[in-house]
Amino acid sequence: MTATVATPPEAVTPAAPPGGARTRAILALALFEARELLQQVVVLVFFVVYTAAMLWQTFSGHPGWHELTGQEGMADFPALQDADRATQTSSVLLGLAVFICANRAVLRSRRHDTDRHFGTLVMDPWRRTLAHALSVVPFALFTGLLVVVRFAWTALRPGAVGHGSVFELAVAPLTVLLCGAVGVLLARLVASGFAAPLLTAAAYVAALDFMVFTDARWSRWLSPVVSEAGSDPIPSDLVGRPAAWHALYLTGLIALVLCAALLRSGGRTTAIKAVTVLALAATAAGIAGQSAGPSAALQAARAKVSEHPESVETCAVRGATTYCALPEWTGRAADWAKAVDRVRSLAPAAVAARPLTVRQRVEARQGLDSDPSYDPLTTPGAVTVGTRWGGNRVPEFSSGLASVLVAGDEKAGGEVCDGRVVTVMWLALGAAPDPLGDLRHVRLDDSTEGGAYVLTPTSGLMMSAGQTTVVKTLLQRPRTEVAAQIKAHWTELTRPGVSTVRAAELLHVPATGLGGAEGNSCGA
């Protein structure tokens, strides 16, 4: 009996398609995976919320001061060198969503037990990995589009000043792209769906510890988004952020992570190895460039504008007032003049005609991390104005201006604590569109009752409870009536040592509740 042994057919390896077909296949798969990502609840929710928040902030001027009070807010007077950075922070949440979902997309075949079928396909594993990485690109482009729309709308505001940076605007889309690439790499390194959440938590804890124990500049700039806030806007040429180097670092890191994922997937072609070397060089160059501190020339320029702003300012005369502004803020003089004219209109003619100099000041010596504090000027008639405008900054400036009209200079105005405070505060707020609202916003505790500290561009001044009562009463009366009384008794109302009780009597405000300390020259 003869046994016949069947010989299995030889495995037929499908012929590799031409280069153009391979590219089209990668793009087709990338497009399919992008649609799959969009259908993930996490990605969809995060991008809808991000888009809604971005559009709200863009078109409503959030926090919407002018909509709540009928006045222009600080959002109406943006500094573009700050507006470009404001587009970055929320991109981290988008990146986190893309990171988790891109990781899950790569592991889909493992979860569904279809890995073994890929061996019959013409497309190499590393090309599938590339397609997964490319599927993140549309989300990065959409993020970039929203960033451009928001910044462009901000730049078109009539009160916008300064200059933004293309490299700062690139951070948000690059962050999203980086997070997606890391998600793909993690899936190729650890074939577990739990790796992404665990790595996210571990990275968050490690980042916190790293920032606590390492306060070096180079370590801060390893983060995709580097926030620097707290200071007033400084001239754009003095910002000193290594935005271009940071964009190079992020670009190089994205390419390096992608190449690592391709190499892990078997893509050991000459081209991929060459790109890996270039990406490593770009990442290293970016780290080196962004780690350098401010140059000596930049530090000298910052010190010059901080200590001697008059050396770089341009001055313009409007009536009896000279407005001196830093180069990028020269257009702001018209807005300052509106506040000056309102305060002057309430003073006697001789006082309203006094020469004044509104001088813009900025603290730039510590860059964006500085906490600005300005010593009061001792030059007669000199008034400080900062680089922020709108919202609370308007009544604060008006209060400083009124104290100069009453006391002569900023230093003397900051020392006013007697009945002259009543005159100062009514001059500052009497002609405002919303006097009582401005009274609340110019006080440190946002109150209209009791004693409180009044903010000005420099040292500020104190209001006692009795002075607050008198000022509130005056602000609720007809403006012309109070203005006539102020002008008629100006000499006595602005005499050093005048008591709050006497000021109330001169202005026909009931003295009920005033007495004791209020009758002294500087009652608390």
SSE inventory with pairings:
Elements lengths: L18 H20 L2 H20 L4 H5 L10 H4 L7 H16 L1 H4 L13 H10 L2 H19 L10 H4 L1 H19 L5 H19 L3 H4 L22 H22 L5 H22 L4 H12 L6 E5 L2 E5 L7 H12 L4 H4 L3 E5 L21 E4 L7 H15 L2 H5 L5 H10 L5 H8 L9 E3 L6 E3 L1 H11 L3 H10 L1 H4 L6 H7 L18
Parallel strand pairs: 2-3, 3-4
Antiparallel strand pairs: 1-2, 5-6
Helix pairs in contact: 1-7, 2-5, 2-8, 5-10, 7-13, 8-10, 10-13, 13-14, 16-18, 18-20, 18-21, 20-22
How would you explain this protein's 3D organization?
The relative contact order is 0.08. The chain is elongated and about 90 Å long. A hairpin with a 2-residue loop joins strand 1 and strand 2. The chain contains 25 helices and six strands. It is mainly α and 524 residues long.
Short recap of the structure:
The chain is mainly alpha-helical. The protein is built from 25 helices and 6 strands.
Strand content: under 5%
Structural class: mainly alpha
User: Uncertain runs with pLDDT below 50, 5 residues or more?
Assistant: 8-13, 62-71
Write down the overall geometry: elongated
Biggest pleated sheet = 4 strands, mixed
Mean pLDDT: 85
Quaternary form: single chain
Helix percentage: 40-55%
Q: How large is the radius of gyration?
A: 32 Å
Distance between the termini: 122 Å
* Number of H- or I-type helical stretches: 25
Placed side by side, the strands forming the largest sheet appear as: 1-2-3-4
- The total beta strand count reads 6
